[in-house]
TrEMBL record:
Mode of membrane association: Single-pass type II membrane protein
Alphabetic keyword roster: Hydrolase, Membrane, Protease, Transmembrane, Transmembrane helix
Catalytic reaction annotation: Cleavage of hydrophobic, N-terminal signal or leader sequences from secreted and periplasmic proteins
Protein name per the record: Signal peptidase I
Amino acid sequence: MSVAEKTGKKSGGLGETVSVIVQALILALVIRTFLFQPFSIPSGSMRPTLLEGDYLFVTKWAYGYSRHSLPFSPNLFSGRIFGSDPERGDVAVFKYPPNPSLDYIKRVIGLPGDRIQMIDGVLNINGTPVQRVKTGEINNPDITEENRPVDVYRETLPNGVSYDTLDLTPNGISDNTREFTVPAGHYFMMGDNRDNSADSRVFGFVPAENLVGRANIIFFSISDGSSPLEIWKWPTDMRPGRLFNFVH
């Protein structure tokens, strides 16, 4: 066999490898853009529903697609295509309105036209208090980040969606707010950790265009600030009870 023939075979092998890599990257980009995108939870604003160190998949098609569905949010079009409206109680990832380069995750509380207000720690929607029942206390620093028992309240929204919220500071500064009227094409988002969440009470309404997707399932969870790549820490820091839990 000649040197040219050998070189040709090697080039063909390299070309096939490059082709496979390119196809894999394109497939990953399509999946990330249109189907699922992984996210990690960096803060405690959604405790006890989501914890720091949770890794979850977000369904991208849930609310249709906007420019923020694409990597780097290119300004190719405005609004949403194939859009579906979020439901009250959804846990959604969105671009932070003051700085769209940042991803935030909160719960959809107010829909367009709603009036939202906190009165003495009780969420009010359109002038009606949301059902709120104390279910007990949590005394687990991995969940509350507090070295003391923390009250847990079960909230039930008008559409029947229920979830737990933390009350770190009774009569806290966020327990009483003005009334917010959600404008058309916007949503009011709140964290479940009501006294430790920078949400629509602080930064205002979230435009529909900023929605990225709906949180769907936790596929990994590790505590104590450990990285999932630190496999040697899995036996002590991984939270096996949270793996493959659906987000509600």
